[in-house]
Design brief:
membrane; transmembrane; 266 residues; 3-oxo-5-alpha-steroid 4-dehydrogenase; globular
């Protein structure tokens, strides 16, 4: 199918999914469930592109597998974190702030998530439409980056989950494992994941998907901006600074995103 046709199908599917989740949260009062659905649905978009695009079959297969494994792992993690629990403080704050127009604004917010998902899906779309397979070295690099990002994010999530599971750590700052070197190692590896697909678009030629190569930079840049400036670090750290003793010192000594040896503590 033509690229724009497949993108339109993906857009329609995401609109339907996010509208359904919005209707669900009207009853559950837990808008945080959009997080796992976002990951699952975006992984599904990768499979959709792999199935309907008319590019090199092997590249499409790599894109489909990479996207669905990423989405399934992250979605399952977020589902365990949100299902059956109180609404995420980020969404609760928005609901309280919006007051009587909360339902309307939440719907618009969910529509914004659709736009963001479509922009991120460029990472899957462009490689799926390249006419010829990428050089083996580029495939190897893409696979290495992808594997490191998935393993790193899974490790960071598990280390934080294990830390929180210990009652003795209640109200304390997690400095275990990767969290000693970054305040948000899970966010770092999430950004790295969106870099993984860039090598798959290298050398795709001047026409077709090759004309869109530079758009491959948008997903990792967009994800980094969202996490560092919008819905990730600012909101998480505002809550942590209020609830966790020593978080101010943690912020002073530890890199915000890129893992790096910490500065000496005072």
């Amino acid at each position: 199918m033509p690229l724009l046709t497949v993108a339109a199908i993906a857009l329609a599917a995401l609109l339907a999914v996010f509208a359904a989740v919005w209707a669900w949260q009207l009853r559950s009062r837990n808008a945080g469930m959009i997080d796992p659905i976002w990951a699952f649905s975006l992984g599904g978009v990768a499979v959709l592109y792999a199935a309907l695009a008319n590019g090199d079959p092997h590249t499409r297969l790599i894109v489909g597998i990479g996207g669905i494994v990423w989405g399934a792992r992250l979605g399952a993690h977020l589902w365990r974190r949100n299902s059956g629990h109180a609404e995420d403080p980020r969404y609760r704050k928005l609901r309280d702030k919006w007051g009587e127009v909360a339902n309307r604004n939440m719907f618009l917010f969910f529509l914004l998530q659709v736009v963001i998902s479509m922009l991120l899906s460029i990472a899957f779309l462009i490689p799926a439409y390249r006419a010829t397979p990428p050089a083996p070295a580029w495939v190897a690099l893409a696979t290495l980056i992808w594997a490191a990002s998935i393993a790193g994010e899974a490790l960071a999530d598990r280390q934080l989950r294990d830390f929180k599971a210990d009652p003795e750590n209640h109200g304390q700052v997690c400095r275990a494992g990767l969290w000693r070197y970054s305040r948000h190692p899970n966010y770092f590896f999430e950004c790295v994941h969106w870099v993984a697909y860039i090598p798959l678009a290298v050398g795709s030629g001047p026409g077709g998907a090759g004309a869109w190569f530079w758009a491959m930079l948008l997903p990792p840049v967009l994800m980094a901006w969202l996490l560092m400036r919008v819905s990730g670090v600012p909101m998480v750290e505002a809550e942590s600074a209020k609830k966790r003793a020593g978080y101010a010192d943690y912020m002073r000594t530890t890199s915000a995103l890129i893992p790096w040896p910490p500065r000496p503590r005072t």
